[in-house]
Amino acid sequence: MYRSSVIPPLRLVFLMWLAYTLQMYSGVDLGFLGVNPRTLSGLIGVITAPLIHGSLQHLVSNTFPVLFLGATLYLFYDRIAPQVFFQCYLLTNLLVWIFGRPYYHIGASGLVYALAGFLISFGIFRRRFRAIFISLVILLLYGGMIYGILPQDSYISWESHLLGFIVGVGSAFGMSRIRRVAN
Question: What are the residue boundaries of the Peptidase S54 rhomboid domain, all occurrences included (predicted)?
């Protein structure tokens, strides 16, 4: 069961590492594949931005949360996990394209914040013991991320963090209203 829950986030992480490797060996900065708000060319980033990272540290700092939070989502909420993952991935980047500052936004941290936002708030909305327990564990492990929502460093896309978290909470609210959801 756990092994299969890791497969979807592992595929994404593989693509993230592949893109970074291609970037390093080719010498081509793939930052142009990020979300560039309100530009036609920047729409490609809605799909590609989470795959592009500016440094090895940036890549590693997104790898483990994507794996852990993604696997947690697929392990405990397998019925809704594909839809939630898809919403968190695409809606976050689409909102960054609409509302973000006019520069290239890259990396998977928006997805990380969306997944954390979903896992933390789903238990609150669902009001089932297991879901609340999962929410508390994720809150204990990732609660400090809340500081990343605030603008601190002009080179970090706090918009991705904030909008990702909002998408995650919104997805949790929507999914909690569906009757046939796993605990």
Answer: 44-176
Euclidean distance between CA atoms 94 and 100, whole angstroms: 10
Q: Counting beta carbons within 10 angstroms of the beta carbon of residue 158, is it exposed (0 to 12), middle (13 to 18) or buried (19 or more)?
A: buried
User: Is the Cβ–Cβ distance between 183 and 128 less than 8 Å?
Assistant: yes
Residue that has been written with the tokens 């959801």 in this structure: 181
- List of residues 6+ apart from 127 with CB closer than 8 A: none
pTM here is: 0.94
Range of the domain at 44: 2-176
Query: For the domain that residue 154 is a member of, what is the CATH number?
Result: 1.20.1540.10
Summarised one tens digit per residue, pLDDT across range 100-131 is 999 999 999 999 999 999 999 999 999 999 99
